[in-house]
Each structure stands twice: as C-alpha cells, then as structure tokens.
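Sat 14:20. Reprocessing the chain from the morning session after the first attempt stalled halfway. Input below, unchanged.
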Amino acid sequence: MTNHDWMRLTDETAVPSPSLLIYPDRVEENLRHMIARAGGPARLRPHIKTHKLPQIVARQVALGITKCKCATIAEAEMAARAGATDVLIATQLVGPNVARLLALQRAFPGVKFSTITDDPAVAAELDRGAREAGATIEVLVDLDVGMGRTGIAPGPGAVELYRAIAAAAGLRAGGLHAYDGHLRQSSLDERSAAAADGIARTEALRTELIGLGLAVPRLVAGGTPTFPIHARRADVECSPGTCTLWDAGYGGKLPDLDFLHAAVLFTRVISRPGAHRLCLDLGHKAVASEMPHPRVVFPALPEASALTHSEEHLVIETARAGEFPAGTALYGVPWHVCPTVALHDRVFVVRDGRVAEEWPVVARARRLSF
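Finished this time. Tokens:
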C-alpha cells in the first residue's frame, strides 16, 4: 500500500465519518482475477458473507459466476434476488431455520438452494421438514479437515451420514463441503503441505462414496488462503470470499495472493488528547474488534500504534500527531473486512475519486423476508 492516493476523495466533506468506502473498479479487478486463478467462472462459488451486497452478486453473475456460498438465510435470499442461480447455505440449519429454507425455496423456484450437515439427527430433521412440505432439500456433508469448528471427520461416520442422506425421501445428496480456514501459513508451499492431509482424506472419501454407487455431484473446498491450492485441483468448486474486497490481515500475510484493497474505512480526528495521540471516530461499532491490534492500518501513518479502542473511539499514538488537527480525514484498511462490513448499514461507492452512490448493506440483517 505504498501508493494510497487511489483511496482519497476529492470532496471529503460529502462523507460523514466513520464510513465504509467501496471502490467498484477494484472489486471488478478482484473478480476477474478470481476467475483467472480458478480457470473459469464455473469453478467458483464465492462466499458472499464478505460483502453482503446485491450489487456485487449481480456483477459476479454478469461475469458468469452464478454460484455462491453464504452463511445465513438472509444472505441466500439477497443472492437469489440479485440473480444467483445456485446458492449453498454453508451453515447447519436447525430449529425454525429449516422452515425458513423451505419457504425460501418456494419463493424462488428457479434457484437451486442447498445446505450442509455433519449430524445424522439434523439430517433427519431436514428430511422430516422437507417431506412434510412436499419438497426436497439438497444437502452436502460438512467435513472437518482440521479446523475443529464444524464438520464430521472423513471416514466411516461420514460414509454412513452420506448414505443416510442419499436414502432419505426428502433429501438429495449434493456432495461434500470441506472448509480449511485454519490454514493461513504465509508460505504457499507450507500452506499446501498443511492442506495435503485434508485433501487426501476428502478425496479418499469421495472415491469410496462413488465406489458404493453414490453420486457425489460436487466438492466445495477452501476459503481465501487455500484458494490457490484448490484452484489447481480438478472437479472442485472454490469458495474464496475475502479476496472480493481484500483486507490488511490477508494482504500482509499472504504474499502469493495479489488482490486489491477495495474497501476502505473513512474516519476523522476528533481529538488530540496528548502530544503524540490522535483520537479517531472509529470505534468498535465501525471496525471489527475481534482481532488484536492493529484492527485497521492507516497508509498515511504506517508507524501509528493503537492505545485504546472503545465503542466510538480509537486512540492511536504517532510522533506525527501534530500534522493532523481535529477534523482531518484519515483512510484505513480494515484488518478483517467481513465483520467490518456487517457493522455498516450502508457503504459509499467511490468512482473517480467521488462518491457516486450509496448501497445499503442488505444482507447484514438476520432476516429479510423469511
């Protein structure tokens, strides 16, 4: 980020702070780069939790990326309305969310929806709901390939779960889902080596299922860090997400992924509480705070360090504080962009240095219609 002039607005007075700026030309470049890396749009199923914006989904569709992955039913509805035709909800649906999925399927009969499970009891609940509604739910088995968050280990239990799904009257076996988001080694060679075991076990499971006469229509694998690894494999749908907007966390840690920063936080100095301190209006409510500092990187102040962070304030320390009087605008790249986007109800869209429009962040809501 040595040259950050592209971030700067020609009319800073037009934007309140704190705000999130989106640069669609850079988003477009990232989407095209994703397609090139994957070898074509059909190989991609981008995770839209990163941006939650129908305008970006529509642009993906225009480029031939008609499949997507999401985390919530609200995101799935947003994607369907924006033109996606194949939507995977990569969260195990329980309780009322089963009925919400079925209502979503009825509302968008031209869209193929699917979800995941790692639990025979949940599969049975999905089957029961589908049969009672006179419908069919497509389900992928969610595999734990080392992250330890969700999923069933590739092995006999996964085989039995897949067979149960394939035999259920209300379900259709849709394949396998393997997310390896715990692999973030800076070296691509080290990342690839770390991914090898999960890949081998997943491939062995797929081979075993096919040998049992079961269809395995798709394998959805990876996130952004392992995207270049899975892109080299045949018959795998890649589901990167962060690279749509990019952020400082991955940008500084994964040198092999040369995506462009396309989301920038706009903030102002609101106080100078000491000779070397600046207080910014960039609190927890404007930038994701689940990570250690730095939670935002300021290209104009690369040496600045965070001192305190609260709901509405971020206090940073810099020897250059005297150069930034109260009211001065600063531009920062979020460390983790996905939860940062979810904190903003709208984004300001920047074209040629000016705010051209505002986009509501539609799918930050937990519920749209269903």
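The chain has two domains: 5-20+262-364, 25-242.
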